[in-house]
Amino acid sequence: MKYIKGFFVLLWRIWMIILSLSYVLVIGVFIVLPLSHFDKTFPYIYPLVRFWGKFLLYGTGFTVDYKEYVALNPNRNYVFIANHSSVMDIMLMFTILKDHPIAFVGKAELLKIPIFGKIFERFCIPVDRTSARSKANVYPESIKKLKENRSIFIFPEGGVTNQKEFEIYLDPFKNGAFNIAIETKTPLAVIAIDGLNKMFPFNWFRGYPGKIKVRLLTIFETDNLEINKDREALKEAAFNTILKDLQQCKN
Question: What is the per-residue pLDDT across 9-36, written as a single tens digit (0 to 9) for each?
Fold first, then answer.
């Protein structure tokens, strides 16, 4: 029975890849990629990128239970952060943040993916965490995106955690998101994602479609904060906010 279930999970994951590739090869190659070379076309092609996330998320059988405990202002930009436990987290964020075009800060390794890498380079901020120059470039690129009326999205753990399917665990947060939020005086919006580590783990033979619980927990204003004095306290508060929510969901 275990092997039969694993076989069907594998087929399900292959279906997800087929959906993603079909969209990227058709919409990405013929519309998004050609138009992405022009700055003025962004408002027209970002909805197509966002729809790719929704198409993949819902087409794979997921649904979303999204709650905002505080209200986002559609006329403000934010630095968004969330816990990171699945590759599907990105599609999830494209789906729920409908009023805030986002630029993800993500691994530079994604640039190596044919076609997708070019799109990622245009719409996101790639970072090689082994390169001091690459990491230093994140801040000026974030400033540029914010001036283009886009929000920044960073998974502050620095990548997907080694979280097991039934654990509640956060890797220590890195400084980048908090430096950007404080230096640019951009509010920090904190999101918790519950369930994807179980529903779509990094195991080709495990997982299942289902309802993902997502909550916008709080927004920290940064107007009066300073990096040297306040960054660690802000980082700790954001970490504890997400951890507490995940623990409450499990109980």
Answer: 999 999 999 998 888 888 877 777 777 6
Check whether 227 has a pLDDT greater than 80: yes
CA distance 57 to 63: 8
Which residue shows structure tokens 């951009």?
Answer: 186
Secondary structure E strands in the chain: 63-68, 79-82, 102-107, 125-127, 151-154, 188-194, 211-220
Compute the distance between CA of residue 139 and CA of residue 81 in angstroms, rounded to an integer.
Answer: 16
What is the spatial order of strands in the sheet that 102-107 belongs to?
Answer: 63-68, 211-220, 188-194, 79-82, 151-154, 102-107, 125-127
Do the beta carbons of residue 217 and residue 115 sit within 8 Å? no
Exposure b/e, 109-122, CB count within 10 A at least 16 = b: eeeeeeebebbbeb
Name the 3-class secondary structure at 66. strand
- pTM score, two decimals? 0.91
| DSSP-assigned letter for residue 71 | P
Residues 212, 218, 222, 223: is their CA dihedral positive or negative? positive
